[in-house]
Write a structure and sequence with these properties.
This protein has 368 residues and is α+β, with helices and mostly antiparallel strands. Helices cover 46% and strands 18% of the residues. Among the domains are: 109 residues, Release factor (Methane Monooxygenase Hydroxylase, Chain G, domain 1, Up-down Bundle); 146 residues, 2-Layer Sandwich (Alpha-Beta Plaits). The protein is built from nine helices and eleven strands. The protein has an eight-stranded mixed beta sheet, with helices on both faces. Strands 6-7-8 form a three-stranded antiparallel beta sheet, with helices on one face. A hairpin with a 5-residue loop joins strand 9 and strand 10. Helix 1 packs antiparallel against helix 3, helix 1 runs parallel beside helix 4 and helix 3 runs antiparallel to helix 4. The longest helix has 41 residues. The protein starts with a helix and ends with a helix.
Length: 368
Amino acid sequence: MEDLAPQIEALTARLADAERYLHITDKREQLTALEQTFSAPDFWDDQQRATRLSKQASDLRSDIVAFEEARALLDDAAVANELAVTEEDEALSAEARQAIEELSARADELELASWFANDLDHGDAIVSINPGQGGLEAQDWADMLFRMYLRYAQRRGWKSEVLDAPAGEVIGIDHATLIIAGHNAYGMLRAEQGVHRLVRISPTDEKKRRQTTFASVEVLPVLPDDIEIEIRESDLRVDVYRSSGPGGQSVNTTDSAVRITHLPTNTVVTCQNEKSQLQNKEAAMKILRARLYEIEQAKREAELEELRGPRHEASWGNQIRNYVLYPYQLVKDVRTGVETGNVDAVLDGDLDQFIVAFLRMKASEGSS
């Protein structure tokens, strides 16, 4: 009968580290103080402040619950292992091994949370996908990436809201913009910022020749309301037009789609998937605020590294990841070297291995 005490001891040390670097004790005190604030009769008089504090409490509660669940699992593993060894019970030993395996994954998640130092990392993300070199094939590739991120959000229990995803001329999509909402969504998804390269047999080529195509992914944080971005109405040009994609009952019958151009920076955002022109304008303004915030950050720091990293043309030599479907099956991240032959799983949203490896690399660089 194998004694799993060494593995349990190692995981005990990892959880003790997690409790320290996640500041769990401080977070419990902060949550208690916030919950007392919520009971004040005038708490909801200031809607913006109340929403911000409620979100802060939710994030604190999420970290605390994740840690407490991991510690409870550790206790279960320790008890099951002790009984298995004492009574030589194979069923209890299997139960202990299963708990250790799950606990190891939980410890990885706790470690991951410790890498998010920026408050924006804990919030929602705006993901934009644009075809690069490759013509119609690139539009199809952009559509594949679009679906991949929707599936990734589902896997992590996040919510997705498609703001704009008009169909391409023949196949795929012209571009896509979506908001992915969930705890640490921006912190995780910023690892996907960059150019993605696909190699496969072209589905549109009668001679079935191999084709290389590119698409770029941009990831921005959804800014909280308390971050002020000055946008003057006189600096905006707002155009409305008829929606071309799926949406509510009014789509394709009214001019509900919105395109906003910020004239001083020539920043253009569009939204057409909401049911009304007003909703589309509000969503477009949310994206515009995020992009102007990024521009201001770049001005202050003279580079785009902090929020988005350097921008590259979606073409050969600039990719962060290669997806090869032919003549062999392989997905490889150029930055970290992580690779897998299970291409179907990756395109179905199995991205954690790449994202975690990238964030671990960046955390290591920051601490060195």
